[in-house]
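Weekend entry, working from home. Most of the wet-lab plans are on hold until the incubator is repaired, so I used the time to fold the two sequences that have been sitting in the queue since the last round of cloning. Logging both here for the record. First:
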Amino acid sequence: MATSETDIRRQKLENLRGAGKDPYPNDFAVTHTAARILDQAAVDPESLGEEGQVFSTAGRLMGVNRFGKAAFFRFKDRTGQIQAYVRRDKLPEEVFALSKDLDMGDFIGVTGPVFKTRAGEWTILATDLKLLAKALRPLPEKFHGLKDPEKRYRQRYLDLIMNPEVRETFVRRSRITAGVREFLASRDFLEVETPMMQVIPGGAEAEPFRTHHNALDMDMYLRIAPELYLKRLVVGGMERVFEINRNFRNEGISTQHNPEFTMLEFYQAYATYEDLMDLTEEMLSSVAADVLGATLITYQGQEIELAPPYRRISLAEALARIGGVAQEDQGDRERLLEIARERGVTLTKTAKIGKILTKLFDALVEPKLIAPTFITHYPVEISPLSRRNAQDPSVVDRFELFIAGRELANGFSELNDPDDQRGRFMDQVRERDAGDAEAHFMDEDYVEALEYGLPPTAGEGIGMDRLVMLLTDAASIREVILFPHMRNADKGSR
């Protein structure tokens, strides 16, 4: 039976232990990152050279070029890659002997001065070398890398090691999230946290995940949205609040959907949905400028300008002008059902006009909205938490933002009339009883909170995963979630 690469590495591990060496020590002090060393070399090369400053840095060994009594070791840390020159006459004999047994993927610590090679590359001349962690499995073959999406998502750690552009995506994701936080904090919004497990899941039309609390002996739900709790805080006098956290919806998996996803929700007292459209334009353009250095981006080959102003058009106008559904037909249920059949749009038998209109919009209009576009004035029957429009009570003061053919944000002036809210909840209960698993639950405690008084307020939710997709040119949501949900593998769920 052939000896595997892992077997060879395990034997090296046992040899180290047999010689009294710890293959996983934790006593190496890093003084500089790779990037900091290279930056200093660029700015102050006079301080370097064999008689110059001594550096200690560490990282994962990614390449080895051995020749005779010397070798070049290329290794990387969180900031980048650097190389070390290992020479027998510069190291104790046992240390040089150790260097010959190092493998790709091992973590090493290197100490020494920095010099420039004949090829012009700044390099650490190793005066000390230490194994910091032995890698027992070989990395994927360098030339082909790690390309299989299934393996990349299930073993994201390998994806991050082998594909630098993947790591850059998640670095950028962190900067985007930080940029959103800074933007809202600078406008006096307070970041808060609300329950992930809720007795009544509310704030969105979605099927929840159910769980059970043993100590309380009661069923609970993973939240589908933080909305109703955030608005309770506004009732309590916290006039500007936001939360960036996870939501859970028991729905399908696609390039745009993951059952566990990150949402930004924020609420502002004494504001309208129009105020939030202005704020959203400012926030997205500001974050893009900070993270990318520009507001003109390219997403999947299409140029998109994120600087304001964005187009604003009502749902009825969009259906007529872009989707080809005449406005005179939009109040005729039978005609809408006929159009849906003609266009291949699937509907339930009991679907009301508001639901039919939005399904037609999803199929006929949404894919065509490439440039940032606010769609406004949604039917009241599909917007149970939104304030009715003063001029046309059949619609609400609501918008959804679409960019690159997909929804990015949903916002509205909040319904703060407790009697109207109770009636809307009752309509949703009837929808649920009729078989709509995504309809809202009745939430008497939330209605009671409204009875204490919710000031005029506007609120909005932005899908952070989709925002990151947009700003990293990612075609699939799985590319921007570190550990996306997947079916069980042969070795079990990961």
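Second, folded right after the first finished:
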Amino acid sequence: MQITASLVNELRTKTGVGMMQCKKALTETDGDLDKAIDLLRKQGAAVAAKRADKDAKEGRVFLVEAESRAVAFELSCETEPVSKNEDFNDLANLATKVLSSQEITSIEGLLEASADGVKVSDRLQDVLVKIQENISFRKLASMKRSSNEVFGIYSHMMGKIGVITKLAFVGTPSSEADLKQVAKEISMQAAAFAPVAVKASDVPAETIEKEREIARAQIENAAKESGKATKPEFVERQLDGRVAKVLKEIVLEDQEFFIADKNPKKLNVKDYLESVAPTLGLSSLKVVELIRFERGN
């Protein structure tokens, strides 16, 4: 079959791939447009595999809120210009549309889902072929809320960091907007100070053990330098004190609330929320869940 310029142009329009690559695909498939598209998609998968060893630490974190659900996902790429590319953002918009209308909790589920007749994995392959860079959905996490819970949504530096917090409250809020603002501020806190958990009991045991090992080494080194031995019971007290100090830095509800003019008493997040609850018409307000994604991590 003759490969006409119009057929090549049609394939180029459908895929966004260069003219020569389109012509080659059509030649290999005897001018069958659908088979040529499939071939280019397969080549896109090959591109992804070939570049899988390339660092894809650029990209953006996207946040989606839809009724009683909220989702965060990271779409990664190798270079910053690609994260601003129209095709990259069209792919992110398709994913956002899917997540807004469907209850999806994994990257695998997202890739298999469709919106407006377009499958996310197919669009991803099209973008891979066109851009020739390692692009992937790197992370995805979601949460649900009940009627007495509110989401705080915050995106920092155009998607470099994305945070979703969930606050639980008791009572009827006097202002939904004010309550949402407080929730957003808690997400801003998490973006700035990178907590690993909402409360101390949620901190992974291996994290605490690692901090104890570091503190023990510091105490032992200090003892060697001073030439004075430290009694075992004193070492344990020091370990407990140092780990407790670290937990105040990495546990969200134990961190000092960061907006100074709203927190003159320098309360931690837990106590600050309890202090503002009455001003919102509530008897209780607390953080119960956290998602924090940072691009490339």
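Plan for Monday: verify the second prediction. The longest strand covers residues 282-294.
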